[in-house]
Automatic annotation (TrEMBL):
One of its GO terms (biological process) is carbohydrate metabolic process. Keywords: Glycosidase, Hydrolase. This is Beta-D-glucoside glucohydrolase. It comes from the Bacteria. InterPro entries: Cellulose_deg_GH3 (IPR050288), Fn3-like (IPR026891), GH (IPR017853), Glyco_hydro_3_C (IPR002772), Glyco_hydro_3_C_sf (IPR036881), Glyco_hydro_3_N (IPR001764), Glyco_hydro_3_N_sf (IPR036962), Ig-like_fold (IPR013783). GO terms for molecular function: beta-glucosidase activity. It comes from Marinomonas posidonica (strain CECT 7376 / NCIMB 14433 / IVIA-Po-181).
Length: 797
């Protein structure tokens, strides 16, 4: 039967039931119509299939699978083709476990380096995020397994994420926070899109007409279903009206009955319900190709090798003053608890149970020889100070030829559920580094972290390798790079600032419990730092290799173009060619990066925006001609006046480089378009000079085109009030404690002290941020909506 045939055979009750989950991970099926129940499960850097009916975030509750590097590392590869291969492997593992949809990738923009889930997102730049997610989706879906592009949209921090209102202007929305989603939708058609928890400009993402219907479906042509993040549903009937097709997880019969009641009352039409149900049916039917085929034999060892390859290209050599690669016959001292208890993935719902796990110390011993390698723990992962450990590390350092010092963030510093409080490494690690003193001159620091950190010792050590969270095979990648068996090729997909005070969003991040204002607008990441010439620790696009690369012969390859004044429209393509030469003595890879900037824009525009790139692999002495293509959108800005992408007639700077700050070649091109160059928009004067940071009420109101909306008040309490809102009331405290007990049990499974502490913090944050409307969803046996309404009446009396 086709999806339409099944739809016509359904009762109204069956239709309503299909719009919500069967349980935590399964969709409803219709047995009499031989429509199966299918399973979805977490990703995105591995398969996290839970073994029980409910969710258990704890590591040991999920099946063993391949744990690849997290998104912050994947994006640093700047290699979509490699990420697509990883996606194929993920799809095969899903098929082997009869999983029909893998919940990923996460592509939200890294607005601020403190975002607790930044390790799970690709970049501060929408082009990189869009390319990586497109490749990931294509790889997974090549195996007839669906994906879930998330979290749509403007979901850029964890604090109060379930109810906070993100206030953002339309131009910033279109240029920064939506393009990655747009590219992935148009180029890969993910089977599902997961809407975020938060509100956007006053409306919950789960029922946002502009985002779900006007843009996603009508403008971008999305063909799949919109599924809620787990517990993101606000008003189920309004969700169906505005393009939300599936509520997850199960809400029992609660929202099924609300749909039926709305049909009976005329609030919801059968046609609107059928529209949602048909898309759910299409998803289930599409899933049958994989479920009905012969079982897939997954070669996990081969996937482990692929994970190592991905990790190799994800590592970024931030600094190297001729210390690396180290000689294999040197006396090596490895320092750091992370070298023997590696941090290989983030904390939260994306935790994978790896079928095997490498440790850096063992891999370094394998490469350099056990007799040449010694180890000193140096610090404790629980952050307790231990002077004896420091003294041992210092004493051993004096005897070593080269030191590999592992530093980074333990799970309690970055996790789903809560945001980071600072950019510092743990103090016990900084104390150790400071104590090493003169020995730092022969030290390479290897970082294991999911997001930028500050490095007060940057001038004291000759080498720094950013390994990010490299997955189960990240340790061998590190060892090979340190020894020179692999030439590092990663590039940062995010800026490492010198301090939080330099980040333009910091004064407004994460905002209040009920509202976050995106006052910095388009000035996110390198767009701000490059435009204002604000010094940074390491710039976007930066990454060293053991080779040297030269760029030459930048050419615009189209004989039809008069470079003095190109007639430019949406059909025009500009092809660039640049010659890249490996002038080093070993094979390696460079990333050619193309940035564009308008000369005299009428609207605030960054001096540099990444618009094209290509990773090129070259043998020693080899040259290659790299071709990049630019289109209308690459030169355009979003014009709010007529809701169109516009390119003004003006001069545009084309800049080719190895990072946003390492520009090697430039040229100027003049474009003649149907949009005359206008004078600067005086009402946005503060945004033309972002270095002044005068993003005050008047400026932000002008940007929004309306007064700044008031935040939702804490009282009177409603079903969207959070447990944190009522935690200090007499009625709310026992409720908070009871749910905390439930969520704490869900987090069980880790024995590592640091991981257990992170799980505790995550549980507290998730409970604090949970709206009361979600209690019947997550604990229907204990709470009903009627009981909650009675509680609200009591609280508000």
């Amino acid at each position: 039967m086709t999806p339409k045939d099944i739809l016509n055979a359904l009762t109204v009750e069956e239709k309503a039931r299909l719009c919500t989950g069967k349980d935590f991970w399964h969709l409803h099926g219709i047995e009499r119509l031989e429509l199966p129940s299918i399973m979805v499960t977490d990703g995105p850097h591995g398969l996290r299939k839970q073994s029980g009916e409910g969710d258990h975030v704890g590591l040991n509750a999920s099946v063993k699978a391949t744990c690849f590097p997290t998104a912050s590392g994947l994006a640093s590869s700047w290699n979509p083709a490699l990420i697509e291969k990883m996606g194929v492997a993920l799809g095969k593992e899903c098929r082997a476990e009869n999983v029909s949809v893998l919940l990923g990738p996460g592509i939200n923009i890294k607005r601020n380096p403190l975002g607790g889930r930044n390790f799970e997102y690709f970049s501060e730049d929408p082009l990189i995020a869009g390319d990586m997610s497109t490749a990931w989706i294509k790889g997974v879906q090549s195996q007839d397994v669906g994906t879930s592009l998330k979290h749509y949209a403007v979901n850029n921090h964890e604090h109060c994420r379930m109810t906070v209102d993100a206030v953002v202007d339309q131009r910033t929305l279109r240029e920064i926070y939506l393009p990655a989603f747009e590219k992935a939708i148009k180029q890969s058609q993910p089977w599902t899109v997961m809407c975020a928890y938060n509100k956007i400009n006053g409306t919950y993402a789960a029922e946002h007409q502009q985002l779900l219907d006007d843009i996603l479906v009508k403008e971008w042509g999305f063909e799949g279903i919109v599924v809620t993040d787990w517990g993101a549903n606000n008003d189920r009937v309004e969700g169906i009206k505005h393009g939300q097709h599936l509520e997850m997880p199960s809400s029992g019969e609660l929202n099924t009955q609300k749909i039926l009641d709305a049909i009976d009352s005329g609030r919801l039409s059968i046609a609107a319900l059928d529209k949602s149900v048909l898309r759910v049916l299409e998803l289930i039917v599409k899933s049958q190709a994989a479920l009905n085929n012969a079982p897939v034999n997954v070669d996990l060892e081969r996937h482990h090798t692929l994970a190592s390859k991905v990790a190799e290209e994800s590592c970024v050599l931030l600094k190297n003053d001729q210390l690396l690669p180290a000689q294999k016959d040197q006396n090596v001292l490895v320092i750091g608890a992370l070298a023997n208890n590696t941090r290989y993935q983030g904390a939260g719902s994306s935790k994978i149970n790896p079928f095997k796990l490498e440790q850096p110390l063992a891999q370094i011993e394998a490469v350099f020889g056990t007799n040449n390698v010694r180890y000193s723990q140096g610090y404790q992962l629980n952050d307790e100070s231990d002077q004896t450990m420091i003294e041992d590390a210092v004493a051993q350092a004096e005897q070593a030829d080269v030191i590999f010092l592992f530093a980074g963030l333990t799970p309690k510093y970055e996790s789903e559920g809560f945001d980071r409080q600072h950019l510092n490494l743990p103090q016990v690690q900084l104390d150790l580094i400071d104590a090493l003193g003169d020995q730092l001159g022969k030290t390479a620091v290897i970082l294991q972290n999911g997001a930028p950190v500050t490095l007060p010792f940057v001038d004291k050590v000759p080498a720094i390798l950013e390994a990010y969270l490299g997955g189960q095979a990240g340790a061998s990648a590190i060892a090979k790079i340190l020894a020179g068996d692999v030439n590092p090729s990663g590039k940062l997909a995010e800026t490492f600032p010198l301090s939080l005070d330099d980040v333009p969003s910091q004064p407004y991040f994460p905002g209040t419990t009920k509202q976050t204002q995106y006052r910095e607008a388009i000035w996110v990441g390198y767009r701000y730092f490059a435009h204002t010439a604000q010094p940074v620790l390491f710039p976007f696009g930066h990454g060293l290799t053991y080779s040297e690369f030269s760029f030459s012969e930048l050419r615009i390859m189209d004989d039809k173009l008069d470079l003095k004044a190109v007639s430019f429209d949406e059909q025009t393509r500009i092809r660039l060619q640049v010659t890249v030469t490996n002038t080093g003595d070993r094979a390696g890879a460079e990333v050619v990066q193309c940035y564009l900037g308008q000369n005299k824009p009428s609207q605030p525009r960054p001096a540099k925006e990444l618009r094209a790139y290509q990773k090129v692999f070259l043998e020693a002495g080899q040259s290659k001609c790299v071709e990049l293509e630019l289109n209308y959108r690459d030169f355009a800005f979003w014009c709010e006046a007529d809701s169109q992408w516009r390119v003004e007639s003006d001069d545009y700077h084309i800049q080719i480089g190895a990072s946003v700050e390492d520009i090697r070649l430039t040229t100027l091109i003049t474009l003649k378009t149907d949009t005359p160059l206008a004078p600067q928009n005086a009402t946005l004067s503060a945004y033309f000079t972002p270095a002044d940071r005068q993003f005050n009420d008047q400026s932000f109101s002008a940007l929004l085109g309306k007064p700044i909306p008031d935040a939702t008040p804490i009282t009177p309490y409603t079903l969207n009030s959070t447990l944190g809102d009522i935690a200090q009331t007499e009625q709310g405290k026992p409720l908070f404690n009871a749910m905390l007990s439930v969520f704490s049990k869900m987090m069980e499974g880790d024995t590592n002290d640091s991981a257990a502490e992170a799980d505790k913090l995550m549980a507290e944050a998730m409970v604090s941020d949970m709206p009361l409307r979600n209690l019947p969803v997550f604990n229907s046996q204990s709470y009903s909506e009627e009981a909650l309404l009675a509680l609200l009446a009591d609280l508000n009396s």
